[in-house]
Amino acid sequence: MARAGLTADRVVEAAADLADEVGFENVTLSALARRFGVKDASLYSHVKNLRDLRTRVALLAAGEMIDGIATAVAGRAGKDALVAFAGAYRTYALAHPGRYAATHTPVDPAVGAASDAFRRTAEITYGMLHAYGLSEPDLTDAVRLLRSTFHGFCALEAIGGFHAARDVQTSWERALDGLHTALEHWPRSSERKEEDHA
Fold first, then answer.
1. First to last CA, the chain
2. pLDDT (tens digit, 9 = 90+) per residue, 153-177?
């Protein structure tokens, strides 16, 4: 029987908090049960297993992150939208390291396809890039560039990986200047060139 006061939402929220404190990879059902003062078995009324719990944390974090990004980019376009998007991404990644790590955990494709958070993330990201005049397959390439840049920068910043004297915020802003320039002058892919001449 489920312990009084425990719900799936409370369990997942607590797991997300625990992830921020000890690292997503260290979240276990036993550690979570100790936080609630219950036996491991009590949690199985709310989550199927550790994989299910981690998937739920990933979906929660993805939703929180895109909510912040959506608010930041509302009414903006072009470089303003890019800077706002990137700023909200970085803020979330640094403020919630465990949750952020969860957003990179593999999720069952069917679960991802049914996720409102994943859908909104794609819509907002691709919508921002459409404003640069990009279409497929260039859109996917550009998304991968942005994701790699944002993630790499945030991951290094989080572990104190930048040792040069230059201000990290200045480097971040210059990186965004570079991305904006790249997006404005994106080279057309060979696939699009072939379509134009078909």
1. 65
2. 999 999 999 999 999 999 999 999 9
